[in-house]
């Protein structure tokens, strides 16, 4: 028999709205449920993780999860939570995005194991051959305009203007639920709290069209304690794709969470048990500066999304940032991670011809880069043992050779513990 999925979500603070009877229905038997994912990008981002983890808990409770990608609805656009209509995508782009989303979901969901194996479905498969006349005859007649107008997602947009395309979205999403209910015995739709109106339209359509059993659960929209939007940094969204957001930057995003947010995140984004989380919170309270909660979250999620090797690289990069590193640590970083770690550090470029077979450290510090103001200052700092190249102390007779360049392109010059400078050698 399944375990109590709803109780698991409740203690984790992951329920916003729930339809009466849902908990009881899910305890009776193994059931199927789904969440829709918008395939308008070729990667999911951390904003999707709440829904991904909801499906993970659903599967762990002994149920069968469906991940629906909106190959059809991606061509329409969901107005929920949006202030303006978005650009619509062509079929080739959507198909590429769907394949990328599937690959990322495989890091979280088990697509292979028996009765509760996860499945991915694309609503384009059942919409592609449905005519407009078929849709308004077989679907539209069951839901009144008054019912649709009462939804918050519609009310908010009517003030600024809303196309018929977007107005019809809740019917299209409602039909998704009906189709999955009829053909896959899917009785539950899950989603963010902004999706409640669309989800309930689906349960209503199922009730009116087939008299089937259907339930709904939504999760709260994650908000940071300081009021800023979750999942955003100064450089934009935090993606699951390592080409869009490096594992180092991904790790740092979680490591930099406030204490208030970390207490929330560890319940939502990890699978740790309640007792383990409470023990970590107690440990964190004794020494908040050690960021025990943040490290636990960052390690857990980075490993799941990027793997154990990427986590170790991210930790090494973080150690570099705080001065606990060696030349080998620097060399272990990809170029992308290196420049992410040292973002904002001043740099100077010299040509490969000018670099030649090597330059003296005094030249590298002063004349070639301007890191230090003069050769005299460079010599004084070198005599004081304050200068490093790639985190290793050097003396006045040091020659910076091609083999000292990381990736054959750059070297990190340092003065003391906090002053860094990047020397780039360009062809």
Can you walk me through this structure?
The chain is an alpha/beta fold and 427 residues long. The chain has three domains: 5-219, Rossmann fold, CATH 3.40.50.620; 232-341, Tyrosyl-Transfer RNA Synthetase, CATH 1.10.240.10; 347-426, RNA-binding S4 domain (Structural Genomics Hypothetical 15.5 Kd Protein In mrcA-pckA Intergenic Region, Chain A). It contains 21 helices and 15 strands. The protein has helices spanning 5-11, 22-28, 49-60, 91-105, 124-127, 132-138, 145-149, 152-158, 164-167, 169-184, 196-209, 247-255, 259-269, 274-286, 292-306, 308-321, 327-332, 335-341, 352-355, 361-365, 375-383; strands at residues 17-18, 32-37, 64-69, 119-122, 186-192, 215-219, 232-233, 236-237, 347-351, 359-360, 387-389, 392-393, 399-400, 410-415, 419-426. The strands form four sheets. Strands 1-6-5-2-3-4 form a six-stranded mixed β-sheet, sandwiched between helices. α10 packs across α11, α12 (247-255) packs across α16 (308-321) and α15 crosses α16.
How many independent structural domains?
Answer: 3
Q: Which percent band covers the strand fraction?
A: 5-15%
Name the poorly predicted regions.
81-86
CATH class of the largest domain: Alpha Beta
Rg over C-alpha atoms, rounded to the nearest angstrom = 27 Å
- Give the number of DSSP strands: 15
| Tally of DSSP helical segments | 21
The named CATH superfamily of the largest domain: HUPs
Overall pLDDT level: 88
Strand order of the largest sheet: 1-6-5-2-3-4
What secondary-structure arrangement, pairings included, does this model have?
Elements: H1 5-11, E1 17-18, H2 22-28, E2 32-37, H3 49-60, E3 64-69, H4 91-105, E4 119-122, H5 124-127, H6 132-138, H7 145-149, H8 152-158, H9 164-167, H10 169-184, E5 186-192, H11 196-209, E6 215-219, E7 232-233, E8 236-237, H12 247-255, H13 259-269, H14 274-286, H15 292-306, H16 308-321, H17 327-332, H18 335-341, E9 347-351, H19 352-355, E10 359-360, H20 361-365, H21 375-383, E11 387-389, E12 392-393, E13 399-400, E14 410-415, E15 419-426
Parallel strand pairs: 2-3, 2-5, 3-4, 5-6, 9-15
Antiparallel strand pairs: 1-6, 7-8, 10-13, 11-12, 11-14, 14-15
Helix pairs in contact: 10-11, 12-15, 12-16, 13-15, 15-16
């Amino acid at each position: 028999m399944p375990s109590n999925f709803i109780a698991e979500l409740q203690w984790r603070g992951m329920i916003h709205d729930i339809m009466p009877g849902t908990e009881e229905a899910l305890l009776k038997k193994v059931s199927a449920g789904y969440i829709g994912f918008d395939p308008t990008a070729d990667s999911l981002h951390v904003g999707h993780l709440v829904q991904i983890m909801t499906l993970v808990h659903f599967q762990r409770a002994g149920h069968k999860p469906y991940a629906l990608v909106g190959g059809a609805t991606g061509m329409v656009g969901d107005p929920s939570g949006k202030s303006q209509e978005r650009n619509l995508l062509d079929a080739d782009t959507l198909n590429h995005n769907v394949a990328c989303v599937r690959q990322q979901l495989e890091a979280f969901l088990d697509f292979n194991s028996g009765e509760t194996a996860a499945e991915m479905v694309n609503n384009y498969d059942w919409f592609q051959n449905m005519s407009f006349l078929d849709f308004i005859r077989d679907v539209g007649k069951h839901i009144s305009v008054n019912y649709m107008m009462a939804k918050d997602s519609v009310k908010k947009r009517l003030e600024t203007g809303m196309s018929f395309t977007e107005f019809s979205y809740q019917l299209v999403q409602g039909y998704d639920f009906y189709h999955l209910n009829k053909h896959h015995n899917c009785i539950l739709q899950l989603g963010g709290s902004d999706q409640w109106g669309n989800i309930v339209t689906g349960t209503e359509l199922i009730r009116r069209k087939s008299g089937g059993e259907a339930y709904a659960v939504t999760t709260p929209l994650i908000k940071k304690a300081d009021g800023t939007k979750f999942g955003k940094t100064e450089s934009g969204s935090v993606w699951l794709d390592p080409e869009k957001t490096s594992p180092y930057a991904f790790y740092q995003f979680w490591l930099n969470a406030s204490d208030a947010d970390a207490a929330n995140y560890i319940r939502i984004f990890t699978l740790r048990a309640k007792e383990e989380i409470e023990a970590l919170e107690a440990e964190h309270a004794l020494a908040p500066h050690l960021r025990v909660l943040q490290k636990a979250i960052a390690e857990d999620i980075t490993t799941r999304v990027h793997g154990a090797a990427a986590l170790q690289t991210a930790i090494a990069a973080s150690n570099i940032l705080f001065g606990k590193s060696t030349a080998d640590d620097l060399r272990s970083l990809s170029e992308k991670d290196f420049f992410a770690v040292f973002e904002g550090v001043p740099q100077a470029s010299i040509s490969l011809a000018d670099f030649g077979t090597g330059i003296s450290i005094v030249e590298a510090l002063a004349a070639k880069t301007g890191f230090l103001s003069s050769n005299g200052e460079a010599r004084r700092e070198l005599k004081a043992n304050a200068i490093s190249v790639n985190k290793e102390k050097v003396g006045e007779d040091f020659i910076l050779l091609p083999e000292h360049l990381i990736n054959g392109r750059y070297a990190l010059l340092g003065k003391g513990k906090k002053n860094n400078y990047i020397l780039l050698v360009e062809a």
